[in-house]
Structures are given as C-alpha cells and as structure tokens.
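Pipeline run #58 for the internal structure catalog. This entry was flagged by the ingest filter as a single-chain record with no existing model, so it goes straight to prediction. Upstream metadata was stripped on purpose; only the residue string is passed forward. Reviewer on rotation: M.T. Logging verbosity set to normal.
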Amino acid sequence: MARYQVILSYDGTAFSGMQRQENARTVQGEVEQGLKRIGWQGESILFAGRTDAGVHAVGQVIAFDLAWAHSLDDLTSALNANLPQDIGVNEVRKARDDFHPRYDALKRVYRYQIICLPTRDPIRERFSWRVWPEISLERLELCAEHFIGEYDFSAFGTPPKESGATVRRVFRATWQQTDEGYHFEVEGNAFLYHMVRRMVSIQVEIGQGKLEPEILTRYLSGEAGGMIQGLAPPQGLFLVEISYPDDVIIQKDV
C-alpha cells in the first residue's frame, strides 16, 4: 500500500463541482468510481481544493492510498482507461504516507479567461467569459497591482469553514492580452470561496470604465464594507497549478 499524488485535468462544464454530492455528477465521484474499477478500496480521495460547477482544471491535485504492483506509467494508463472523456490524469507520483493535497500546498495558481465580443461565440464561451463593451488592458493592469501582498479578502469571498480566517497572501497577479482575449493569472498561498471570480468581476467593471481602480483599496482595507456583489461566471476559471515542498514526492519516475 502506498499513497499516490495525481495531477488531474478536467472540463468542468458537465460537473456539479469537484466535491462528491448525492444525486449529482462530480469530479470526485467519477474519479472514485474509476479507482474502484482498478481495485481501490478506500472511502474517499483527498483533493487540493473544491472547484465550483462549471470550473475547469489543468492542475488539480488528488491523493489516495492504493496497493499497486505495477509502474507509475501503468497506473496513469489504468486510471485514464477508467475515467470519462472530460477527466484526464496528467501525471502520477508516489508521495509521502502523510501527504495531503490541501494542507501541504504552498501556492496555488488560477487563470481566468475573457473574450471581448458584441455577439455570441458558443465555442470559445465554453472556456471563457464573453464581455462587452471592450475593456482597457492598461486599467486592468492597474487593478492587478492592488492585490499583491497580504490582505483581508473578506469582501471577495468566504472561508472554507464558518468563522475561518479571511486573510490571504497574493504573490502575483497579472493580466495578459492574447489573440483569444485576456487572461488574468493570480498566485496565492490560498483562496477564499469565489475569491478569484469576484476579483475578476470588479476588475472588468473597472476595465470598462464603470468604476475606478481606487475602489479596490477601499475593499481591501475594509472601508467599502460588505461583499462585492459581482461574480464572474464559472466557465472562464481554471485551477492551473499547485506547489508543494520538495520532500512531498518520493518517486516521480516509472
């Protein structure tokens, strides 16, 4: 028996989120069913963080204990053969026996994708938020600078547990304009529930000239009061990467 760390990708469109729910299709539920087909006898996998219904991932991290007599490559292939088409295993590693994807995480990276179009684009809108009128990259970049540092983000989200801490540290927050639109990427030690989607929502309002960047200072200092009401839709959000201490992994190779 060993503990395995698995990097997952999934298209969140058809899922009711990451966490298992009764009478709903979830990523956790599908992964556990796939694991049972290869001999897993556990009750619940561990995972780095919940993602909402419709949110995607290219770097979700899960862990489970399994008696597996074959190579890591074989386990990767076995998992992918027993998972639906909208979930993929990117990599399998052997981890410390006490490894926990959530509590051992040092940093997390999320990306949010936006396209600016006056009319629908059903294909790209599966993985992006379509906004109109156009937004200013210069104003977006001014916004992102406000988030870097340690702040009470209670105006942007709620903690995983009632009465939990709402202070988070953001190491990096950047906007990039691409041929497809705009990408917001943010790296932090942890994130509140709906935090990134609220960060994006208010930045879009500022980028469209509806608000001024200084409003962010008021929210981060607590002067504005209350929760930001805007919430960017889930389909533009991706969990990209989670970083861990070097001693978590004990085997990466076959």
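catalog note: The longest strand covers residues 167-178.
catalog note: The chain has a mean pLDDT of 96.
status: ready for reviewer M.T.
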